[in-house]
Write a structure and sequence with these properties.
Blueprint lengths: L5 H40 L4 H10 L4 H12 L8
Length: 83
Amino acid sequence: MRKLHGCRLFVALVKWGAVDYLQRREVNKKRFTMFKQLKKITNALRVPSVEDRELSYLNGSLDRIDLEYRQRQIDRGLFRNSF
């Protein structure tokens, strides 16, 4: 094996490091893809909380007056009262 000096040694180390980095990146990419799918499934099965339902109700308002009306309904306990 030839002995590498100076710039050649630096280039060789950079290439090896780059290859190692890219290999680790591929492994992490596969791992995150797996967790993304798992996260999508758990979010699909999750029941929305009271706060989520209130927020989606408020986001459905058409104008300022409708928003204020919906805020008053929420303050009165529209989503908080259990049957």
